[in-house]
Amino acid sequence: MSRKVENLKRFGETVNAMAQGREIFWINPKGKENCFSKQITQEDIDLAEARLQRFAPYIRKVFPETEKSGGIIESPLRDIPTMQKALSQMLGVEHTGRLLLKCDSHLPVSGSIKARGGIHEVLKFAEEVAMHEGKISLEDNYEVFAEDHFKAMFGKYSVAVGSTGNLGLSIGIMSAQLGFDVTVHMSSDARQWKKELLREKGATVIEYQDSYQKAVSEGRKAAEGNPTCHFVDDEGSLDLFLGYATAGKRLAAQLIEQRVTVDEDHPLLIYIPCGVGGAPGGVTYGIKKIFGEHAHCFFAEPTHAPCMALGMITGLHDEISVEDIGLDGKTAADGLAVGRPSRLVGKTLEMLIDGISTIDDHKLFRYLKALADSENIWIEPSACATFDTVARVLQHKEYLKMYHLESKIKKATHILWATGGSMVPSEEMQQYYDKATSTFLR
Ligand SMILES: *Cc1c(COP(=O)(O)O)cnc(C)c1O
Questions:
Q1: pTM of the complete model
Q2: In this prediction, what percent of the chain has a pLDDT beyond 90?
Q3: Whose CA is nearest to atom 11 of ligand 1?
């Protein structure tokens, strides 16, 4: 299907380097504009947050691990001083400022950032169905969603999604819990344990010996023409995006709790791994809505699947795929194994993303091990894609100059967004850890 681009030169040096599989660090010349889409407002994000609040009593009831947070699915924001030292040594930079880890790897219910967008979208569908069936009104206590007659009602409806794994987990677990008939279309890079876990929860899992795009399009096809089926479209869903964007205000509250100042003199720099772009795009959108130009947001992708960077640099967004420049899209970062960016996010974030870095796979394992050794925090390879982006920014004199950060950078707060990992079985995690040593010696 892909038509390989014959003359890469017209896209410039960076795309050429990407086509050769080299690491890049791209600064978005339009990042400075900080321009938001008129279609997605703070009010939309607040409505999503209000929905999550309405469902909190239900979530608390059916997922007791959310008891302490009152049914709100949120993750800790942690200082990682020992890792900060280790990273400075590994990268040969002074990490001026404070380095924090946003532990979405340990989000309750599904153990990845997908618990934000994915669960929001399923809850929104459930709310629509319940209202349509006359079972609920906005003022009710949503604990009733746990009752058997709700489950019976949802059994007449279905949910479908295509995924590399983590979105499938999030959609599958939440949908099955509510009582929906849920089907997860999994791409070949999805891990076996994720499929098994989903089947255990009662989801139907269909496996493809093919890429993420294929899994999504098969899911879309299966849902088409079925009015009682809701298809979660990872390549363009606004409800996913809004669920991710609620992270903005929540992060702002956590920063206040941790006595972190963000203003003209105290920049906030955020680093998020990127697959199709929905999760990092939504989170960035929410954060920039709150902090505006004081926040700088960078994405990180694997060298074999840099779809967002390619879409942004060429301006072609979802009209170009990594296969078009001769890349195979294969990476150990299974959550990031995506060849074509979201049709929603590229255009929406065109004037908001500050930059994108790419990383060689073997480094992911080294960072995974370094974090485990230094802080005893275990995250999956995908979640480690950002760990050298901090250094890239600190060493990028032009970037610092462009934003007058040269002196302020010492007072900056850096947040590495750890996007997944707490549900990875320990034997599998040990294998990742062991790979750090074997690939390091290579
Ligand atoms: C999905 C995922 C991402 C990226 O999210 P996208 O919406 O695909 O860009 C990053 N890390 C992990 C662990 C993920 O599961």
A1: 0.96
A2: 90
A3: 419
Q: Tell me, what's the pLDDT at 96?
A: 75
Distance CA 424, CA 436 (A): 17
Tokens of 164: 């590399």
Written as one letter, the residue type at 368 is: L
Question: Which is the closest atom of ligand 1 to the Cα of 280?
Answer: 9
CB 168 less than 6 A from any atom of ligand 1: no
Q: Which atom of ligand 1 is nearest to the CA of 277?
A: 9
Q: Is the pLDDT of residue 44 over 50?
A: yes
Query: In the predicted model, what is the mean pLDDT of residues 215-243?
Result: 93
Q: Which of 103, 104, 105, 112 to mutate to test the pocket of ligand 1 (most atoms within 8 A of CB)?
A: 112
CATH value of 3-40+67-110+244-438 in 3.40.190.10, 3.40.50.720, 3.40.50.1100, 3.10.450.60: 3.40.50.1100
Residue 232 corresponds to which tokens in the numbers above?
Answer: 């979660």
Give the ligand 1 atom nearest the CA of 166: 15
Residue nearest to atom 2 of ligand 1 (CA): 335
- Are 375 and 106 in contact by the 8 Å Cβ rule? The answer is no
184, 163, 165: which is closest to 175 by C-alpha?
A: 184
Which pLDDT tens digit goes with each residue over 242-290?
999 999 999 999 999 999 999 999 999 999 999 999 999 999 999 999 9
Domain range 113-240, CATH class: alpha beta
